[in-house]
Amino acid sequence: MVFLQANTRMVLCRRFCSEASVAKKDVFQRVLAGFPSGIQMAFAYGSGVFQQTGADMSKNMLDFIVVVDNPTEWHRENIEHNFKHYSFLKHLGAKTVSKIQNSYGAGIYFNTLVPFEQRLIKYGVIGTDVLISDLLNWDTLYVSGRLHKPVKIVKKPNSTELVQALHTNLSSAVHSSLLFLPENFTANELYMTITSLSYSGDFRMKFGEDKGKVSKIVAPNLPYFNKLYNPILNETEYLTYSDETELFMHTLSKETRCYHLNHVPNVVVDKLSDICKKTNPNIPRHEIVEVIASDSKCNEFVSGSIASIVNKSSWSQSVKGILTAGVSKSIRYSWSKVKKMMKNS
Questions:
Q1: Dihedrals phi, psi of 64, to nearest 5 degrees
Q2: How far apart are CA 166 and CA 123, in angstroms?
Q3: Which of its termini does the chain have fewer beta carbons within 10 Å around, N or C?
Q4: E strand map for the chain
């Protein structure tokens, strides 16, 4: 009897210590603790994490993206432990959920309006291989675009390939943005341009999103942007910064445009190739960059190419969202976006 009592005390102590440990974790870690293992990387983003001008962070939904090596197995465990997070698609099984995640939209599966403690969360699930491809090539610019802006890393990746791809994505954003900027520009103008990349062509910016969203993201978070991009800017050629004027300076020339175009992702170059082939069907791929760099409309061509990527993925992901969230949640989520837009207009 004494042994049983002691054993019970030990169990209760372990349980209490475990609960106390969880309670000490911040909200981001507490959210992550409710998910299955097998997460390669996780990050939180958006107005519930970073201050946006005129917004009350405490009332906003917390947004997460979890990167998993094996989406099917992860969804199988998550459906078992977090059954209510999913729409009717959960009844079709983890294989179907994973297939919908990878085959449609931007390769990501969202569960939204999930109650957690005293607020709501939304989380997207993306495969590690799909994310790496998007970071390197800008297949959809959906998650790679979110990572152009500061995020809160909740779980650091241990994949060397993913870490390098994250760096390349930031570098691509800098090189693309420098094609749009004048000879002299401020850090704020640079970060506004970078942030705008993943919103250009997004139909939701015309209806459903705050028109001043980009400036509201950048203005209060300049220190975070500096920390994120300073290493990239320091290694970028043809770019200098003056402490006296607080301005960046770069030369606008064919040479510098070639340099930047050689550092933009493959999907952008593919779309530039389509433009060149309208007038020169037999142009070799290795000559495309030089032809575009020589054209006075270079920045327009690059801008149009990026916008077309974003437009396609924003439409397809939004349509998929009706299935993954369910009709009721989709209406609630969309209406909350519209109300925010109307409030800030």
A1: -130, 155
A2: 20
A3: N
A4: 39-45, 62-68, 108-116, 119-127, 152-155, 184-185, 239-242, 247-250
Q: Which helix (H) or strand (E) holds 259?
A: helix 254-261
Cβ atoms 315, 208 nearer than 8 A: no
Is residue 158 classed as helix, strand or coil in its secondary structure? coil
Contact by Cβ (8 Å): 194, 174: yes
| Mean pLDDT (whole number) for 279-294 | 87
How many CA atoms are closer than 13 Å to the CA of 157, on its beta-carbon side? 21
Q: Which of 148, 167, 151 is nearest to 159 (CA)?
A: 167
> CA angle, 310 as apex, 307 and 315 as ends, to 5°?
125
Q: Which residues contact 41 (CB under 8 A, 6 or more apart)?
A: 66, 67, 128, 153, 155, 156, 157, 159, 162
pLDDT in tens, 213-237: 899 999 999 999 999 999 999 999 9
Tokens matching residue 177? 């943005």
CA dist 342 and 345 (Å) reads 5
pLDDT at 318: 73
Apex 52 CA angle, 46 and 53, nearest 5 = 160
Closest CA to 287 of 279, 150, 214: 279
Which one-letter amino acid corresponds to residue 101?
Q
